[in-house]
Amino acid sequence: MNDQLTIKRTDSNDADFNTLIRQLDYELWTIMNEVQATYDQFNKVPDLPTVIVAYYNNEPVACGCFKKHNDNTVEIKRMFVVPESRGKDVATTILAELEKWAKELNYTTAVLETGKRMTPANQLYKKNGYSITENYGQYIGLEESVCMKKELAR
User: I need a surface site. Which of 43, 50, 66, 114 has the fewest CB within 10 A?
Assistant: First the structure.
């Protein structure tokens, strides 16, 4: 069996991306319960041109995207790996590709938000050079949020 991971740059209208996002949303509701209602409004990514979908054997297994936060900064959004592909560094590959793409577009910083209950996500981001920062924007005052930041090396 060929376990070659392939990466596709696409947009938020991509059918595979939307299938993965539905799985992500279901998982978030399962973990966060009613708290997720507050966050759902922040997770929308319509008409976003900076989406990545990863495939094993032509099957979509992971996704992520970013959107402009300000002139120098992108916000990493909608990171997800299907359960059967976790533990294989797929999320790190997605994150690295998103950072590479952001640098190609001349962004110098990445920010993101995850939840206190999302232990694997917190570990992933810290392992990849993100550090906790003050909650920004819509996450100010939300105690379940953990906001992180990373300077993107040139």
Answer: 43
* 5-111: in CATH 1.10.150.130: no
Q: Which residues contact 83 (CB under 8 A, 6 or more apart)?
A: none
Query: At a CB cut-off of 8 Å and minimum separation 6, what does 120 contact?
Result: 86
Alpha-helical (H) ranges within 105-151 are 119-127
Structural domain boundaries in the chain: 5-111
Q: Nearest-CA neighbor of 124 among 100, 153, 88? A: 88
Instruction: Quote the CA–CA distance of 105 and 107 in Å, as a whole number.
Output: 6
**3-class state of residue 45 by DSSP:** coil
Q: CA 154 to CA 150: how far, in whole Å?
A: 12
Contacts of 56 (CB under 8 A, 6+ apart): 3, 4, 5, 85
* pLDDT (tens digit per residue) in 72-84: 999 999 999 999 9
Residue type, 87: G
What are the tens digits of pLDDT across the range 24-80? 887 865 755 555 445 444 556 668 899 999 999 999 999 999 999 999 999 999 999
